[in-house]
Design goal:
Organism: Serpula lacrymans var. lacrymans (strain S7.3)
InterPro entries: DUF3533 (IPR022703), MNNG_permease-like (IPR053001)
Number of domains: 3
Pfam families: DUF3533
Keywords: Membrane, Transmembrane, Transmembrane helix
Protein name: DUF3533 domain-containing protein
Strand content: 5-15%
Structural class: mainly alpha
Distance between the termini: 47 Å
Number of strands: 5
Order of helices and strands: HHEHEHHEHEHHEHHHHH
Number of helices: 13
Largest sheet: 5 strands, mixed
Radius of gyration: 35 Å
């Protein structure tokens, strides 16, 4: 029953009742019909979205063994062999990586190893340099004060591939492993060498003097150099790659809601082709200044665009991917708002954002295989594209753009279908209203004729 009719029937006095007043029973019922289902839907959404995101970041420590790591033994002697035996020891403590022994000739030069890490063939590569064992022994024997312990081992990794994974899981595991193994090896090696200086019960004064000249050959003896091939040197990228994508979704949601409200007065009077045109063209045009503005704001805060391309090309390519992201998500909202109506579209928007962002929070290797679906979702691909443009990480730009275009085209198809269904419903409703109006007019005319006939009969 319409609220206005209820007011007219009950004659409710304004500003004079409590919520549970009997006079407000019908109005209270109408109120609860809106509030209670909304609360129930929010609870269901929480049980759907929160476990989805919580599960994405729940147990990365248990999955570090999925992070591929290369061990390249160019030394081929005591240091390289002993380190590999320790690394390959299943009884080792601490987080473990997925270590593989790579033949030095297959691995190639330092440049080849670096390129392999950048090309995501491995998360990290640990190289025991050629002649490392011999260099240490010679430095001890000659008292070489220029000996550099960090020249024995080189570690290659690309931080910008995923700064959370490398900073919180990968490099702590590598550092712990190297500290344990190199300290143990250097201690054993030093003990063996010092034992030789006391051979036959006599102190070798010359050997001790040479060690005094090069104490670093005893402690630490061997160490390592870290080569960060793609440093995450733009903190602003954290906002752009993760939180910024949520903002883009919110902007497209606001646009979809405003566009839905603006269409109401006019869409009933438009041909199907016209309403379809404005539903497709208006959002796609609106996303152009939005994507450029998003990129300009990022530029104003010094987000670098020249890592892979020149700054101008990087800027426009970044804006193109922001536009594709907005088109992929925004057109999906444009399509679903027809099916779900503005009343329920926020629930769909919330689920879509969580389902997308859950796959971006950590790389695939540190998530359950369930989250591999993210490779086909918009935010995952935009994140990879932005990393490539800003940090020159491994490029999958063509694939990323193709997936985003696929989402946009799919949304265009569903938008056409849902708009057609909505127009059919509107036309059927209009036909019913017209039929009811004709019946009502006919009944009114008959009643008027009856009244006129009765008036004629009453005349003398």
């Amino acid at each position: 029953m319409d609220i206005q009719l209820i007011k007219e029937k009950v004659q409710i006095a304004p500003f004079s009742h409590g919520f549970f007043s009997p006079e407000l029973a019908q109005l209270r019922k109408q109120y609860l019909k809106v509030v209670v289902p909304a609360i129930v839907l929010v609870l269901l959404l929480m049980w759907t979205c929160l476990p989805l995101y919580w599960g994405a970041v729940a147990d990365p420590e248990d999955l570090t063994s999925n992070l591929s790591a290369w061990f390249i033994n160019r030394d081929g002697s005591q240091l390289g062999n002993d380190l590999w035996n320790e690394i390959n020891n299943e009884n080792g403590t601490g987080p473990r990586l997925k270590w593989s022994l790579i033949d030095a000739q297959v691995a190639g030069t330092d440049e080849d190893v670096a390129n392999a890490v950048v090309d995501t063939k491995a998360w990290v590569a640990l190289v025991v340099e050629s002649g490392a064992t011999q260099s240490l022994a010679l430095a001890r024997e000659t008292g070489n004060s220029t000996y550099d312990p960090t020249s024995a081992i080189t570690v290659y990794y690309a931080q910008a591939r995923h700064e959370v994974a490398t900073g919180s899981y990968l490099m702590p595991a590598v550092t712990t492993l190297l500290q344990t193994t190199t300290t143990a090896w250097a201690t054993s090696s030093a003990q063996q060498y010092l034992a030789l200086t006391y051979g036959g019960g006599q102190v070798n004064a010359t050997a001790l003097q040479l060690l005094a000249q090069a104490p670093q050959t005893i402690s630490p003896g061997v160490s390592w150099t870290v080569n960060n091939l793609r440093p995450f040197n733009a903190p602003l990228a954290t906002a752009v790659i993760t939180v910024g994508q949520i903002y883009l979704s919110v902007f497209t949601f606001i646009t979809a809601m405003a566009h839905a409200a603006a269409r109401v007065p006019i869409q009933r009077h438009l041909r199907f082709s016209s309403i379809l045109a404005i539903r497709l063209i208006v959002p796609l045009v609106a996303y152009i200044p939005m994507s450029i503005t998003y990129t300009l704001v990022s530029l104003a805060f010094h987000l670098p665009f020249g890592a892979k391309y020149n700054p101008t090309a990087g800027f426009f390519l970044f804006a193109v991917f922001v536009y594709l992201d907005m088109a992929a998500i925004g057109l999906a909202l444009e399509a679903m708002i027809t099916l779900l109506t503005p009343k329920f579209i926020p629930f769909f928007m919330m689920f879509m954002v969580v389902a997308n962002i859950a796959c971006v929070s950590l790389p695939d290797d540190l998530q359950n295989v369930l989250y591999r679906y993210g490779t086909g979702f918009p935010m995952y691909n935009v994140s990879l594209a932005m990393r490539t443009i800003v940090f020159n990480t491994y490029s999958l730009l063509a694939r990323n753009a193709g997936i985003l275009l696929g989402w946009a085209l799919l949304s265009c198809c569903t938008l056409v279908l849902f708009t057609w269904q909505g127009r059919r419903s509107e036309m059927n409703a209009a036909k019913r209203e017209s039929a009811e109006r004709r019946v009502s007019n006919l009944q009114f005319d008959n009643l008027q004729e009856d009244k006129d006939g009765m008036q004629i009969d009453k005349k003398p």
